[in-house]
Design a protein that fits this description.
2 domains, TIM Barrel, about 30% helix, about 25% strand, 12 helices, about 400 residues, Lyase, Ornithine Decarboxylase, Chain A, domain 1, eight-stranded parallel β-barrel, nine-stranded mixed beta sheet, alpha/beta
């Protein structure tokens, strides 16, 4: 978002004008930012044959999926509905990973029937796959490398107590099941967590994965997951993907020499591709002075953006209506019947009733984690492509909330 002539723009569009056209609250995404992030990551890993599989749980609007497909990406999905959305967006089934957790075997069978790449993370499911399909269905296996990493305990997924993946200590069991049923183990996968800055953590996990692959002779690729961190505020650290790409490529090429065969790498960015592309625009309903703070009460809450409350995540907030106002501290609070403060005593340009505030880095896990709590509707979504704003999801109404409810005659 750029400040030009006292007006903020995104993708060449006047941000306040978007609110005037589409209303508030409003999610807005910029295609240029998504393309920039995809291109940067693609170039960073150019030292090795690779595929980028967008972890679409971050943002699954079918228009976003279609755009990422045009960029050259594949998909990583964690549910059948995400898989179906990917197919509707035009992805070939072979370019879609299906990485479920704690689902029924019926879901696995449906994913196989649809032609997706299977990625399983528990031994009982591998047993069922072998008993039902033998070695006729290629399968990637998610390994838990026992590495604690990530910006929050809720997004750390590779440690010993995590529900995700098959423990690296159970590698002998994986080999046993493969040999018993003749499984075609096409790849090994890991995902240690999100918001990882230290490239050594990535490389530590990659080394564990590569060494495990030496026990499985059918391996054709290694999926190193995602978790690349983006900056949320000025001075914030981010993953140096260029350094990571260079070091990981060297590690992989050395492994290929030892194996005497080649393989390709996969990566699963989610937040990295879409977080910085998104804004949540809200309107200030009330300025409330208390002995402790000054509240700016807005027409949104944890029902629209739960990350600050759930993860204690920081989102920069800009008063786009008064960019030259005197800087003062405000506690930005939502309208939900819970303590849903987005920020406490945050310095920003003077906030007045009716002003529009922009929450930055709202492209990932914003609308996707939204709800109808307090029976409030979810916002509309707008996608800026080639300097034009397109409505890609209309604002919900009371009729939408009632649509699936059945009224009894009592």
């Amino acid at each position: 978002m750029l400040l030009q002539n006292s007006r903020y723009t995104l993708g060449g569009m006047d941000v306040l004008g978007l609110v005037e056209e589409f209303g508030a609250p409003l999610y807005v995404y910029n295609a240029d930012t998504i393309h920039r992030q995809f291109t940067r990551l693609d170039r960073a890993f150019s030292g090795i044959d690779h595929q980028i599989k967008y972890a679409c749980k971050a943002l699954t609007n079918v228009n976003i999926l279609r755009f990422i497909r045009q960029c050259g990406g594949g998909l990583d999905t964690v549910s059948l509905n995400e898989l179906h959305l990917g197919l509707q967006a035009g992805f070939a089934a072979k370019d879609i990973f299906f990485t479920p957790n704690n689902v029924s075997f019926d879901e696995v069978k449906e994913a196989i029937a649809l032609g997706a790449q299977l990625n399983l993370d528990n031994l009982p499911m591998l047993e069922k796959l072998g008993q039902t399909y033998g070695g006729s269905v290629p399968v990637c296996i998610r390994i838990n490398p026992h590495i604690m990493a990530g910006g929050n305990e809720k997004i750390s997924t590779g440690h010993i107590n995590s529900k995700f993946g098959i423990s690296i200590t159970q590698l002998d069991d994986i080999v046993r099941v493969q040999e018993q049923y003749g499984l075609d183990v096409s790849g090994l996968h890991m995902h240690t967590g999100s918001e990882i800055v230290d490239t050594d953590i990535f490389l530590q996990g990659a080394q564990i994965l590569l060494e495990a692959g030496r026990r499985l002779k059918t391996i054709r690729f290694f999926d190193f997951g995602g978790g690349f961190k983006v900056p949320y505020k000025q001075g914030d650290k981010e993953t140096n993907v260029e350094e990571l790409g260079e070091r990981l490529a060297a590690l992989c090429h050395n492994e290929m020499k030892q194996r005497g065969s080649s393989f390709y790498a996969c990566f699963e960015p989610g937040k990295y591709l879409v977080s910085e592309a998104g804004l949540l625009l809200v309107r200030v309903n009330v300025i409330k002075q208390t002995p402790a703070t000054t509240f700016a009460g807005v027409d949104s809450g944890l029902n629209h953006l739960i990350r600050p409350m759930f993860y204690k995540a920081h989102h920069d907030i800009t008063n786009i209506s008064n960019p030259e106002g005197a800087v003062k501290p405000y506690s930005v609070a939502g309208y939900i019947c819970e303590t849903d403060n987005f920020a406490w005593d945050r310095e920003m340009n003077e906030v007045r009733e009716g002003d529009i505030l922009a929450f930055h880095n709202a492209g990932a896990y914003g609308i996707m984690m939204a709800s109808n709590y307090n029976s409030r509707p979810r916002p509309a979504e707008v996608f800026i492509v080639n300097g034009k704003a397109h409505l890609i999801r209309r604002r919900e109404t009371l009729e939408d909330i009632l649509r699936t409810q059945l009224v009894l005659d009592i």
